[in-house]
Amino acid sequence: MKKLCCVLLTFSLLFMLAGCSNSSPEPPKKPSPKEVVASFLDCLKNGDFAQVADYVEDPSSIEEAFADGEDSNIPALARDLFSKLTYANAAESIDGDNAEVKIDITTVAFGDIMQSVFMEAMTAVFSNMTSEEPEDEDFEAAIEKMVADKIKAADAPMNTSNATFSLKKIDSAWKISMDENDEELLNALFGGMNDFLEGFDDSDMSDAFGDMFNGFDEEE
User: Fold this and answer.
1) ∠149-153-154 over CA atoms, to 5°?
2) What is the pTM of this model?
3) What SS3 state is found at 166?
4) CATH code for 29-219?
5) How does pLDDT run across 98-113, given as a tens digit for each residue?
């Protein structure tokens, strides 16, 4: 009797194994629009700009924006800027091969930092108008260091905005459509930078900046 039970058990196990081997594995589930946006933002936060390009419809736009040029500090500044990025409250809506993801993004208030740097630089130049005009390279290096220091500061100002990502399904995978004219999204990603630029254009700051350098010419 015991031998018969062992034989039956062996056949049962073989039957189960045969059934498992014949079953087709399920294809991996494609990331949802919300998951694609989360992965995109995670890559930004980690400074993995090459991987960021995998989530957008036009990878060249990302590759060009964060290219490591010989004289460019943009990638380093961007890594510092996005290192403090967080996001929450993602909500997606899908309509066929198009989707939208609304999400709250918090990052360094780059617009506020640029305004602060601008005012400090303007003050410094005005206070040295009787001195020799600084070399362009030295002035640019000083500005870049000032920006980097303010971004890295523990008490750096933060900005929270609600952004909308547009996505398209391409070859069964969701891709983010990045548009350089999408000011709302870019403003959220870059911490109010567009707000600063609009304020710069609409105020007397741009005129003051021009007058600041005209002062050097008058002293010569």
Assistant:
1) 170
2) 0.73
3) strand
4) 3.10.450.100
5) 999 999 999 999 999 9
115 SS3 class: helix
Going by C-alpha positions, the residue among 87, 86, 114, 91 that lies closest to residue 101 is: 91
Q: Are 99 and 177 in contact (CB under 8 A)?
A: no
Answer yes or no: are the C-beta atoms of 38 and 104 closer than 8 Å: no
Structure tokens at 199: 């304020």
| pLDDT tens digits along 45-91 | 999 988 998 999 988 777 666 665 555 567 788 899 999 999 999 99
Helix or strand (DSSP H, E) at 98: strand 98-108
Residue type, 127: S
Domain boundary assignment for the chain = 29-219
**Both tokens of residue 151?**
């971004």
* Residues 6+ away with beta carbon under 8 Å from 146: 117, 120, 121
**Two tokens, residue 131:** 């001195």
The identity of residue 90, as a single letter, is: A
| Count of CB atoms situated within 10 Å of the CB of 7 | 10
**How many residues are present in the chain?**
220
Residue 159 has pLDDT above 90, yes or no: yes
Contact, 139 vs 124, CB < 8 A?
no
